[in-house]
TrEMBL record:
SUPFAM superfamilies according to UniProt: MetI-like
Cellular component GO terms held in the UniProt record: ATP-binding cassette (ABC) transporter complex
The keyword Transmembrane helix belongs to this UniProt entry's keyword annotation: yes
Gene behind the chain: glnP_3
Species, as recorded: Bordetella ansorpii
Protein family according to the UniProt entry: Belongs to the binding-protein-dependent transport system permease family. HisMQ subfamily.
Name by which UniProt lists this protein: Binding-protein-dependent transport system inner membrane protein
Molecular function via GO: transmembrane transporter activity
Transmembrane segments: 20-45, 57-80, 191-209
Keyword Transport: yes
Membrane topology (UniProt): Multi-pass membrane protein
Principal subcellular localisation of the protein: membrane
GO biological process, one term: amino acid transport
Residues of the ABC transmembrane type-1 domain: 17-209
Keyword annotations from UniProtKB, A to Z: Amino-acid transport, Cell membrane, Membrane, Transmembrane, Transmembrane helix, Transport
């Protein structure tokens, strides 16, 4: 009788799962870097005084937030080549993850910016600071630290959304475990190990976010 969980088989497939884990982590890290950068740009554009700038940004944010991530992945994967833009499946998936979560990060940034006391902006104006220096030197240093926990939540959420990459032929962690299961007819070990890997890395990411949050509070307290 075969054991419910075969440790020998688990150690045998561990290197294969580790290779797929690298792809999952790569997609998450690069996707999140894209999301936090593009999200900040979208937030600033949405708060622009000219409606011709703010309206398209707001429309883009709401459109992305209101459509499923999987649909966006399919759209980029099948439509971009038609326009002459050819990207690898992994690059397409990272782009989809980054743009999708950028829309959510933009709203988080906007909430943080609007929470900065109006008097801070008025004081910067009184000192004859430009809009750029006011935003970079006064507003953003006060707006970003409070929203770090929310951005961290999106990091963990993106990590758990990476299995959707399998829909566009990317062999990430979960897809690799399913391939192992279909070839060996043993699903318990690969799926259990995938669950443990996701749990450990999600907890590690949450711990890192708390460390960054604490560090930003420490720096803010020294001002």
């Amino acid at each position: 009788m075969n054991p419910i969980f075969d440790w020998n088989f688990a150690f045998e497939i561990l290197p294969t799962l580790a290779d797929a884990l690298v792809i999952t982590v790569q997609a998450t890290v690069i996707g999140m870097l894209l999301a936090v950068t593009l999200g900040l740009v979208l937030a600033m554009l949405r708060r622009a005084p000219l409606w011709i700038v703010s309206a398209p940004a707001a429309l883009f944010i709401e459109f992305v937030r209101s459509t499923p991530l999987l649909v966006q992945m399919y759209f980029l994967f099948y439509v971009l080549p038609v326009t002459g833009i050819s990207l690898s499946p992994l690059t397409t998936g990272i782009l989809a993850l980054g743009v999708h979560y950028a829309a959510y990060c933009a709203e988080v940034y906007r909430a943080g910016i609007e929470a900065v006391p109006r008097g801070q902006v008025e004081a910067a104006t009184a000192l004859n600071l430009s809009r750029w220096r006011t935003a970079v030197g006064v507003v953003l240093p006060q707006a970003i630290p409070p929203v770090v926990p929310a951005l961290g939540n999106y990091l963990v959420a993106m990590f758990k959304d990476t299995p959707l990459l399998s829909a566009i032929t990317v062999v990430e962690l979960l897809q690799q475990s399913k391939m192992i299961g279909s070839s060996t007819f043993r699903y318990t070990e690969p799926l259990t190990m995938v669950g443990v890997m996701f749990l450990v890395l999600s907890l590690a990411a949450a711990w890192c976010v708390r460390r960054v949050e604490g560090r930003l509070k420490l720096i803010g307290g020294k001002r």
